[in-house]
Amino acid sequence: MSDEPGDARPRSPLLPRVGPALRVLLSGFESLLYGLVGLLLVLAAVFVVIGTVEAIVDAVSVGEDAVAIGVVVLDRILLTLIVAELAYTLRFVAQTHEIVAEPFLFIGMIATVRRILIVTAEFERPRPGMRLSYLLLELGLLGLLALALAAAIFLIRLSAAKRE
């Protein structure tokens, strides 16, 4: 009853028919999930843009200085880029059915730059109890993280170039 000589396991007559049907069902479910996550990413991008406009209006009405408003706008632009990179990665995974590291490294790089921007802005207006040494330590570690991510991206691209 088995396909392999010496294989004593009985084969179910339903197994050849259920296997492809299950694969089609799971593939459809996977596509549905990718579609839903893609819609949520679009929604997140819209909310970020709306929140940016609201933050600019609030900052201008309160009389914030131009640097603070610029930091908010740049922070939100970087957040929008993170959402866009996630959407690109999702589309790539949905099309090729393989996960690659490079888009996630770019997301990490954008998030690191975003945090560096925020920490640097905190130098402008230090809060009571916030020690300068902690800000400098965080800034140094973020700089090292940015270098490590850049090196990882470089090595991945170098590896891909050698394979071609």
Describe this structure as you would to a colleague.
The chain is mostly helical and 164 residues long. The protein has four helices and no strands. α1 packs antiparallel against α2, α2 runs antiparallel to α3 and α3 runs antiparallel to α4. The radius of gyration is 24 Å and the shape is flat. The two termini are 46 Å apart. The mean pLDDT is 85.
Helix content: over 70%
- Tally of DSSP β-strands: 0
Terminal CA distance reads: 46 Å
Number of helices: 4
Q: How much of the sequence is in beta strands? A: under 5%
Provide mean pLDDT, rounded: 85
Question: Any idea what the radius of gyration is?
Answer: 24 Å
Q: Domain count, please report it.
A: 1
Shape: flat
What order do the helices and strands follow? HHHH
Quaternary form: single chain
Largest sheet: none
Stretches with pLDDT under 50, minimum 5 residues: none
- Helix/sheet category: mainly alpha
